[in-house]
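Dear colleague,

Thank you for sharing your sequence with our group. We've completed the structure prediction you requested, and as agreed, I am returning the results in plain text so they can be pasted directly into your records. Please verify that the sequence below matches your submission; if there's any discrepancy, let me know and we will rerun it promptly.
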Amino acid sequence: MIRLERNEGLWRAIIAREAKANSLTRGMLAELADIAEAAGREGARALVLTGEGRVFSAGADLDEARAGLATDPVWERLSGAIAALPCLTVAALNGTLAGGAFGMVLACDLRIAAEGAKFFYPVMKLGFLPQPSDPRRMAALIGPARTKMILMAGQKIDATEALAWGLVDRLVAPEALEGAVAAVVADALGASAGHVAGIKRLIG
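Please find the predicted structure tokens below.
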């Protein structure tokens, strides 16, 4: 249910569980973490995360969440692996982003979203704590008050507001998403892995 496409230095990991709104099982999360760790070892210059259909991911698979997935350390393993990558990482948000799926997206360098996407993380309502790194990364992007709007007030944010807040970096028509992502990874793909890593290291 995770499809990996590799072309030269570009790795694309696609969440391919459209019939279940791309909800994530433990096995899928582990596979994504494996991919991120391998991308670092094998000199990828850009890693793109995206989903099939009209939803990026609805978060944890509900059955597995009830069985303990909501608090499983695999979420932190995945977001940590993405954050540690020396290459350019891009979340191509083809649609709505919900719940624990925020972690991998917040860990990316850039977030490009399709118009019409919505963003919500209903941990207060569901009685779970967010993954430990998610509030810190979210607050670094949008500030503590807006982070509380999402995590504590349970507000659903539309794509226009997400762009204004800085939660996403660019908003495009759904049919333009692939081209927009190609444009932002083009320079990294034209450079060496060491050059990409060097610039990223300077940014911090």
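Summary note from our side: The beta strands are 2-7, 10-15, 46-51, 55-57, 88-93, 96-98, 110-114, 118-120, 157-158, 170-172.

Kind regards,
the structure core
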